[in-house]
Design a protein that fits this description.
heterodimer, A: mainly beta, 4-stranded antiparallel sheet, B: mainly beta, 7-stranded mixed sheet, 11 strands, 54% strand, globular
């Protein structure tokens, strides 16, 4: 059973900032939050990972409130090539931890 | 970053034949590899967890005699679809978990299986 809930789809325009929120009400103390991007007929690609507060890398930011029951992936100034499915996953990364995918968010960027 | 490869990238076979898909971690050792299946417009569905040197653990509803998994080394796991049928046509994706650190999971590029 997936541990996360995300909007099924979102539309935005080129140049806009896109925020995708994920709910993970039952997140455990040792769980990290990881976001993946998937293009059609490709394997998922790691975007960003965090445990609390804010994490930023060259492609995205991840905001995690104090209670950690949700997280928001922020994509600055999106382009058409950001059209993809985005998955939010939680897990503790231990050897036996299984990554169960939710339905993900299908992001469609319009020109 | 760590790289996971899959071979072949796509395969077309006749109904009743068996197909083997390889998953390799190219620059790291992986004690655990995972196999997923993905149908069009759907999410990834975990099929099984493969630990090096031991039997794979299959998810509920996945036929272990149909989907044979072998994890013979720290860098290679194989999935064999036996007696494939058209309903087995799907996109198969493997992932590998690194031994050290957080044990981040790295995904392969996927294998498109089409059974005629």
């Amino acid at each position: 059973l997936a541990k996360t809930t995300q909007p099924i789809s979102m539309d935005s325009y080129e140049g806009q900032e896109v925020n995708i929120t994920c709910s993970h009400n039952n997140i455990a103390t040792n769980d990290y939050i990881t976001w993946y991007q998937q293009f059609p007929s490709q394997g998922p690609r790691f975007i960003i990972q965090g445990y609390k507060t804010k994490v930023t890398n060259e492609v995205a930011s991840l905001f995690i409130p104090a209670d950690r029951k949700s997280s928001t992936l922020s994509l600055p100034r999106v382009s058409l090539s950001d059209t993809a499915v985005y998955y939010c996953l939680v897990g503790d990364g231990n050897r036996d931890d299984k990554i169960i995918f939710g339905k993900g968010t299908r992001l469609h960027i319009l020109p | 970053g760590a790289v996971v490869s899959q071979h072949p990238s796509r395969v077309i076979c006749k109904s009743g034949t068996s197909v083997k898909i390889e998953c390799r971690s190219l620059d790291f050792q992986a004690t655990t590899m995972f196999w997923y299946r993905q149908f069009p417009k759907q999410s990834l569905m975990l099929m099984a967890t493969s630990n090096e040197g031991s039997k794979a653990t299959y998810e509920q509803g996945v036929e272990k005699d149909k989907f044979l998994i072998n994890h013979a080394s720290l860098t290679l796991s194989t999935l064999t679809v036996t007696s494939a049928h058209p309903e087995d046509s799907s996109f198969y994706i493997c992932s590998a978990r690194e031994l050290v650190g957080y044990n981040e999971q790295f995904f392969g590029p996927g294998t498109r299986l089409t059974v005629l």
